UniProtKB/TrEMBL annotation:
Record keyword Signal present: no
Name of protein: Histidine--tRNA ligase
Gene responsible for this protein: hisS
Catalytic activity of the protein: tRNA(His) + L-histidine + ATP = L-histidyl-tRNA(His) + AMP + diphosphate + H(+)
Family listed: Belongs to the class-II aminoacyl-tRNA synthetase family.
Naturally occurring in which organism (per UniProt): Rhodoferax lithotrophicus
PANTHER family noted in UniProt: HISTIDINE--TRNA LIGASE, MITOCHONDRIAL-RELATED, HISTIDYL-TRNA SYNTHETASE
NCBIfam families per UniProt: hisS (TIGR00442)
């Protein structure tokens, strides 16, 4: 007797922790936001760029800085099996955009205004608004040194908030000056912190000599009074840096943009200089930064290219959508124009021809499908039509098919009622519908 082999129980597969599926209707809200961004970018003459999700690890070590949290603790790195290269899932996109600009000599004929959308990856503790895979939308202006471009990017984000209906977002500004100015401040800051070494937490002590500026951004409540009294970088800025910042604020003032100057705002990457900014909110708890950016005039050189000025920002899509929800704005689900109700399987060729013509002139139509043993009752089909959110039901009954007609019934406005039209009259109905919209 042959022993019966009992198959092992198949383990249910789930998504990786912190890497989430985006399902309808939430996916519709993402698409809505992306469409708003595309229109906005076009108005400001920014063009789309798409870079690889995987880059060589040295790009981020050189670009972001070896002692940043991202490089030290958060990157997903792995070895290429073919050649042993160290590769990394991109934790942010600015370094990738600059690498692409260098590799393809994009600035040979002048500056470029670019924007991107896509997933980033950081190995963090997942929490609301902070995931291991998260989408970012960003804009980068490469090859422009003037503060008017810094202002342009901030005005663009401010316009986006108005476009999507967000009002409870605050703008914070600072200037990190130039490297020589930052070095003077660094010495003064280290000297100050050394005198209060016993008040520093473990993270601050670790950063004291490697990246002391980041200590100013601590969230530890026991260190707030200490960092408030620390030397301020703004006090070490020279005339040129101060003039750059003044030009920025004067443009924002002229456009009635409300902002706060925050001397403790430093950002998390080493590549920033001069202008840095954040848009924040109290609605998302500890994940209150929804968009941030600044100037990075030395990143091209850090990555092996000729010096070129640059400035940009990135916003977290997940956080913006959480903010949209908290503000009471509903998901933007696309409106379905019509649902086709079919009484006979043999009618499908005729029905498909009609609704295909409707789709070609811009209507969205959902086709009822058979279940193998027929199309189902009219009652069940009307129920599906109603649940689909369609504005109209297109009824293809025996009489309609015999007379090459369609009965149109409004599902949302009972005052409209229903009407039966010939195939030729459908064009007039579509035109009337589209003019009303």
């Amino acid at each position: 007797m042959i022993d019966q082999v009992i198959p092992e129980k198949i383990t249910k597969l789930t998504a990786v922790k912190g890497m989430n599926d985006v399902l309808p209707p939430d996916s519709a809200t993402v698409e809505w936001l992306e469409s708003k961004v595309r229109v906005l970018m076009s108005r400001y003459a920014y063009r789309n760029i798409r870079t690889p999700i995987v880059e060589r690890t040295p790009l981020f070590i050189r670009g972001l800085g070896e002692v940043t949290d991202i490089v030290e603790k958060e990157m997903y790195c792995f070895e290429d099996r073919l050649n042993g290269d160290s590769l990394t899932l991109r934790p942010e996109a600015t370094a990738s955009v600059v690498r692409a600009a260098l590799e393809h000599n994009m600035l040979y004929d002048g500056g470029k205004r670019l924007y991107y959308m896509g997933p980033m990856f950081r190995h963090e503790r997942p929490q609301k608004g902070r995931y291991r895979q998260f989408d970012q939308i960003g804009a980068e202006a490469l090859g422009f040194s003037g503060a008017e471009v810094d202002a342009e990017l901030i005005l663009m984000v401010n316009a986006l908030w108005k476009e999507i209906g967000l009002m409870d977002v605050r703008l914070e500004l600072n200037s990190l000056g130039q490297p020589a100015e930052r070095l003077q401040h660094r010495k003064a800051l280290i000297g100050y912190l050394e005198k209060h070494h016993e008040l520093l937490d473990e993270d601050a002590r670790r950063r004291l000599y490697s990246n002391p500026l980041r200590i100013l951004d601590t969230k530890n409540p026991h260190m707030q009074s200490l960092v408030e009294a620390a030397p301020k970088l703004m006090d070490f800025l020279g005339e040129t840096s101060l003039a750059h910042f003044k030009t920025l604020t004067s443009i924002l003032d002229a456009n009635a943009v409300v902002y706060t100057i925050n001397p403790r705002l430093v950002r998390g990457m080493d590549y920033y200089n001069l202008t840095v900014f954040e848009f924040t909110t109290n609605r998302l708890g500890s994940q209150g930064t929804v968009c941030a950016g600044g100037r990075y005039d030395y990143l091209f050189e850090q990555l092996g290219g000729k010096p070129a000025p640059a400035v940009g920002w990135a916003l977290g899509v997940d956080r913006v959508l959480e903010l949209v929800k908290s503000a009471g704005l509903k998901n933007i689900e696309p409106i379905l124009d019509a649902y086709a109700i079919v009484t006979e399987v043999t009618a499908f060729p005729f029905v498909h021809k009609i609704i295909q013509g409707l789709r070609e002139v811009g209507l969205s139509v959902q086709m009822h499908t058979s279940a193998g043993d027929g199309v189902g009752s009219m009652k069940s089909q009307f129920k599906r039509a109603d649940n689909s959110g369609a504005r109209f039901a297109l009824i293809f009954g025996a009489d309609e098919i015999a007379n090459r007609q369609v009965t149109i019934k409004s599902l949302r406005d009972i005052s409209i009622g229903q009407q039966t039209l010939s195939c030729d009259q459908m064009k007039e109905w579509v035109a009337t519908l589209q003019s009303a919209d």
